[in-house]
Amino acid sequence: MPGFVVKAERDQLVKDRMGALGEKITGITQEADMLCVHVKKDALHDLLRTLRDELGFGFLTTCCGMHFPGEAQDFGLVYHLHNMRQGHRIRVKCRTTLNDLEFQTATDLWPAANWMEREAWDFFGIKFKGHPNLKRILNMEDFPAFPLRKDYPLEDPTRRDKDDKMFGR
Amino acid sequence: MKEREKPDFWQKDLVQGRDLRELTTLNLGPTHPATHGIFQNVLTLDGEIILDTEQTIGYIHRAFEKIAERRPFYQITTLTDRMNYCSAPINNMGWHMTVEKLLGIELPKRVEYMRVIIMELARISDHVICNTIIGQDAGATTPFLYVYQWRERIYEVYEEICGARLTTNMGRIGGWERNFSDIVWKKIRAIVKEMPAGLKEFEKMLVRNRIFMDRTIDCGPLPADRALAYGFTGPNLRACGVDYDVRVADPYCSYQDFNFIVPIGQNGDTYDRFMVREQEMWESLSIIQQAMDKLDAMSDKTTFRADVPEWLLPPKEEVYNEMEALIWHFKIVMGETDIPVGEVYHCVEGGNGELGFYLVSDGGRTPFRLHLRRPCFIYYQAFPEMIKGGMLSDAILTMSSLNVIAGELDA
């Protein structure tokens, strides 16, 4: 695959450090140019702290929610972290289920996580324990649903002229 | 800032500990001419000094991430226009490059240099808007009206390339829709030649202007460590003294072929933000010049797309006359070409900072999930910290120097 650089040496450093964490890490994968660390939900906050303090990933690029309907662990959270000094980025993924949607907040590590987590709450209904002001951010406050979940229809479901047979996903 | 802080013994009733200050609540926005966009700030003021603010955003939220889950890749370009509409081509190119990364498309150098030229023009127009509005909010209307003609000239280039001015939908996945016409090159050359004189005049008006300096120095400062913690990127981060620029840190689109300086500031105040943007305009002009020189040195004057018929629509006359082109056209429009399964994150240096696209594809004709990292959305949350203890009029200036674009903020 052309067009991007894989920073294998830096990736190896992360892999080595993750090995010491044992079974809290459920997997490490390479996704295009980026290394991705899969972590168990209860170890997520510790992992983020380790990455920030020990491996130099001091910059939180994004944090966003995910929804995978029909899978055993149907909700997820994806972080992109950036080590600016070394020019190295990684992705951290954490999966959970609909019944267990409360994560530990990352606002104590990065103030930038504040609105990102509010966005995840607003669109996916993912809660964050310890968040200072967890309320909807882009949608109106009495909005009745979590719109980025896959079961929320994009089009008005009462309309008959929009037919998904030809032009849907 | 320090000298404005008053001792607080007169503010408190010493016996009962009550707050003796008469605090005012002021609604700044949602629609206020000085916020240049639709967002609300509920300010708590003691006299004219800001104690706290509560931000409300989302007034022009259009659910791009949701809409994108129902659109084929080439239709999402039009959504990206509407994020930072002051530099729409950068958003377009960022999106094309994200998809190209997923698909593994490599572009010819000529196409990449053409993209660089357009992205740098867009950066100039973005910075022109931001900097002249800083002048406007500080009370200098002349630069706003005068320097805007350069933005107009740049928009004319867009118009020649794609027919639109603001929401450009420019370029395609895998290259450009057509080669640039001679008029485009003529207009770009004229901008590179004539803009420095205009920019110099603009700088004469403001850069060493005593009134402007007194007004902007120490206005809305933020130290570098706080800026990093708040996820600042782009000119606002560089004004704090951190030399992070995506074009240098993660070169994309052949930016490694160009020589340019990443200007940085020191205090992260409004003046530094202004100056960083000002310097960046000069650097952008130089990059455009370098790209034109490189293109002139190439013998190839016709390549404007990679050879990816399964992704990039063939020219219309071929669709009408050739069987194969018609088939490709049909397959692309109906979304019948195979899309690989994968996840990519790609970022470009937008007008306001790191504009990132996190694209998850499950092989369907539309993205499974698209998350947009909008720089505005992330750094605007630092606004209360930046304006606390300052004057209301400083808050206005701080906001305009952050260049918060409502479309990008709310997506």
Structure report:
The complex is a heterodimer of chains A (169) and B (411). In chain A, 34% of the residues are buried. Chain A has one domain (8-167): 2-Layer Sandwich (Beta Polymerase, domain 2), CATH 3.30.460.80. Chain A has a 5-stranded mixed β-sheet with strand order 1-2-5-4-3. In chain A, a hairpin with a 7-residue loop joins strand 3 (59-67) and strand 4 (75-83). Chain A has helices at 8-19, 44-53, 113-124, 164-167, and strands at 25-31, 34-39, 59-67, 75-83, 88-96, 102-104, 127-129. With 169 residues, chain A is an alpha/beta fold. Chain A is globular. Chain B is mainly α and 411 residues long. In chain B, 49% of the residues lie in helices and 11% in strands. In chain B, a hairpin with a 2-residue loop joins strand 2 (40-46) and strand 3. Classes of the chains: A alpha/beta (169), B mainly alpha (411).
